[in-house]
Design a protein that fits this description.
ten-stranded mixed beta sheet, globular
């Protein structure tokens, strides 16, 4: 798979899928890990999906696309506008289908008003590993993250990968996961929620990284997977240099999979510019823009060929301050 063109690979493998939720689930299954499980700084605590490739899963996704009602029921049972929660629901649906889900979203409290943490997923792993027939129990923390490279620190450390709204960095997120969240099963208050001892605690991290528009992409030595999904970022003033001629502004719950939309839902360069100007006149929230191409075989449908965040003109300076302040 070309490291810089996941959209083309997704279109080749999953272009026949039309339901947005099924496409998001397929992206979670197909997308490369954001982090390299073998990188030394992660201490062997990065998970990767297992036993999910092949014709059986392909057929299951196709059947689900034809009738997404079971998936929709899972999503609608606990509706949320938070992208992370939405992605968790999709993964829980998959793990349940695989027969390995022990528990999902288990809150651990030391008292009525004292929340210690939450198990994202407790999973059963494969065949029995013990002489008594016990299967291994895994604790997986799960995150879908989107980070922009603050280019003054290219190659230094994971804190130079900054969230679009400046709320966190990849370094800060991973320190929280490794230092706190993955140790949850050792807390006395967690024991009542566990059917047996946790054999392994790891983090499964999916997402996209974004690099300054028009600049060479640096070879990161930050524990990032070489095949990660990637895009660009540009300030409002730089938006006139975006590639392509058709665009779609993606709402947050549509950030996971490459976009697919009716061709007449896309906007041209002039309309995009006007929309961006109007947005940033009153708001500082970055917008994710998909670069779209009308399909040759079906002129009514457009698919994503690239994506990037458009950020306020002062974002670079604020991102640098965020990194320096840690």
């Amino acid at each position: 798979m070309p490291a810089d063109n996941f959209q083309a690979e997704f279109q080749r493998r999953r272009g026949h899928l039309t339901d947005s939720h099924v496409r998001a689930l397929a992206w979670l299954l197909d997308a490369p890990d954001l982090l390299d499980p073998l990188a030394a700084q992660w201490q062997g605590r990065i998970a990767t999906l297992f036993d999910h490739q092949g014709t059986e899963i392909d057929a299951w996704l196709l059947e689900l696309d034809r009738d997404p009602a079971p998936l929709l029921a899972t999503i609608d049972a606990h509706p949320s506008n938070r992208l992370g929660r939405y992605a968790e629901r999709l993964m829980a649906f998959f793990f349940r289908h695989q027969g390995i889900l022990c528990a999902h979203g288990v809150q651990v409290r030391a008292g009525k008003n004292d929340t210690v943490g939450e198990f994202d997923f407790l999973l059963w792993r494969g065949a029995p590993l013990q002489a008594d027939g016990r299967r291994a129990l895994l604790h997986w923390e799960f995150a879908t993250k989107f980070y922009l490279l603050e280019s003054s620190g290219a190659g230094r450390d994971a804190d130079y990968l900054v969230g679009p709204n400046l709320a966190d960095t990849l370094g800060a997120k991973m320190r929280k996961i490794l230092d706190r969240q993955l140790s949850l099963s050792s807390h006395p208050a967690a024991q009542v929620h566990l059917p047996q001892t946790v054999d392994s605690a790891q983090a499964l991290i999916k997402g996209w990284l974004f690099y300054p528009l028009g600049q060479p992409q640096p070879a990161l030595s930050l524990g990032v997977s070489a095949a990660h999904c990637r895009g660009f970022w540009a300030t409002l003033a730089e938006a006139e240099y975006l590639p392509g001629e058709r665009y779609l502004i993606l709402p947050r719950l549509s950030w996971l999979a490459p976009a697919r939309a009716a061709s007449d839902a896309c906007i041209g360069r002039l309309d995009l510019r006007e929309t961006l100007n109007a947005h940033f006149a009153t708001d500082t929230l970055p917008l994710l823009v998909a670069v779209m191409r009308v399909q040759v075989q079906d002129r009514d449908v457009a698919v994503e060929t690239g994506r990037g965040f458009i950020v306020p003109n002062d974002w670079r300076g604020r991102a640098r301050e965020r990194v320096q302040g840690r």
